[in-house]
Amino acid sequence: MHFHRIVREGFLGARTSLDIMTADFKAMLVPDAAGSRRARSILEVMRRLAGQGVEIRLLHAGTPSSAALRELKRELPAGLTIRRCPRLHAKAVVIDCQRMYLGSANLTGAGLGAKADGRRNFELGIWTESPALIDGVLEQFNALWEGHRCKTCKRKDVCPVPLEEPDLA
Hints:
Layout: H1 2-10, E1 17-22, E2 29-31, E3 39-41, H2 42-51, E4 55-60, H3 66-74, E5 80-84, E6 92-95, E7 99-103, H4 109-112, E8 125-128, H5 131-145
Parallel strand pairs: 1-4, 4-5
Antiparallel strand pairs: 1-6, 2-3, 6-7, 7-8
């Protein structure tokens, strides 16, 4: 259910913006259509959305998977901005500031349920259109994105460059 709601209805339905918080980010495969054998990586999906004018902000905790990093090094999609905060553990996807997933699933195939039943994580989350809840999450997202929490962070030893953007060279 997570995969269908977050990726199919959420990502693919984005028109203006996509704000993503995830601790872990992998090059998850997204089938072209239900039952289709052809699949694209989530980064290809983001590239297409960005090409349609969707602004995408991805805030994650660590280094993307090797497959995602290879794809990002090949071509960083215009309209996709990535920042890293090693302390981030929150998971949320906000679509067009109007719809949101908030829960435990990372932006991975196992987290969102894109893998076979025996290889999925057991996750919980909510899908909402509540303006109050979405505004609260976006307030937290923006505070992290803009570095407002960096000044008082006690983990500078693992984050020497606050909110660094990936070195894709």
